[in-house]
Amino acid sequence: MASQKLKSARAVSPRKIAKTRKPSIPITAISRAFFDRVFKAQSIEFYRLLGITLFLVAFGLVMVLSASSIDSLVANNNSFEVAGRQLVFAAVGLVALSFVSLMSVEYIKSKAKLFFIGAMVLQLAVFFIGIDVNGNRNWIDVFGLFTIQPSEFLKVAVILHVSLYLSTQQQYLDDPKVWQRAIFISAAAIALVLAGRDLGTGLIMLITFVGLMALAGMPGKLLNMVLLGILILTPLALMSSTSRMGRITAWLNPNGVDPLNYNWQSEHGMWALAAGRVFGAGLGESKMKWSWIPEVENDFIFAIIGEELGLVGALVVILLFVFLAFSMLRIMQRTSDPFKRNVVQGVMLWIVFQALVNIAVVLRLLPVLGVPLPLISAGGSSLISALTAVGVVLAIERENHSQPRTARPQIQRGSKSSLRRKA
Hints:
This protein is mainly α. The protein has a domain at 111-244 and 262-369. The chain has 16 helices and three strands. It is globular and about 55 Å long. It holds the Pfam family FTSW_RODA_SPOVE.
């Protein structure tokens, strides 16, 4: 019997055996192309920027957990409530970064105007369906689940739209009308944010867009006029709010009478930094996070970094933002395309200046402005918008790496009238 079974097994041809096997599931062309594009080797600058960004986000999650644990336990009976929500926001932001970084720059350009219109509509909606937070009307409540801050996405939208507009006007950059339109686009967005009484976000947008247009080639005379206008309008914006004036007065006179405790945050923030000394009290060992500093996981998270990780930890965070700026500068230098250069400049100015302003507030070099530390502070809109912007820069560097580097073209500049005369 055994020999008969063996013979019958030998009699079966290899073809029949192959037919009886279950066919393996083939990898589709779409999935193969996707994985090839995701894992394809990129430039050093691509991985440097991505690595710094991921480290800042991961570090931010740890610090948000540490800074918010006590207040979260008191308010929600759960130490991980705020940190868990921030983890979800980080996941959404990283998905946005991944998808945007895989988009072609031409596709991003084609959607820049639509994105700008959508962001402006959302910012306008704040005045009808928005909610007030600490005196600022700059948030939209989504069915009680979470809030959206449209002004954070408006930053990205204006950078893309202004960059697109200026890239189409390269031959007319000496014509004041070109810059007037770019100024109008930026000013309209800033005015909507300031109308919601959010001075901090408005200030960051102002610095970003003026810096962007200066680097893009705005004529010196027009730039001086813009700066003069800012100097005239800034005091008016400050005097339009009693709480704003109170914070500035308290900042200018820290030892004076402060019945409304405008100096409370900054004073306790300095105490936190002083307590950290050189090496810090240790992760999770902060004393000031025990309800001594309002918004400690948001605007004043740098104070907790200094208290728990000391001067060394604070300097590491500052150096990471310096390396982030250096990486974006290198990416900007690797392209001659005006749109790409302007976008990278805008994103770099936004993230770096916002980080500097946040740190300056904690160090009492500036009055309290309510500006989060990019990629680190708690807040979904701030984190997702920043990661989306970094995704755009990565998409630009991906194309830089895939295309041969060409010499920067000489841009013919002149007014429309002079160009017509030459024609």
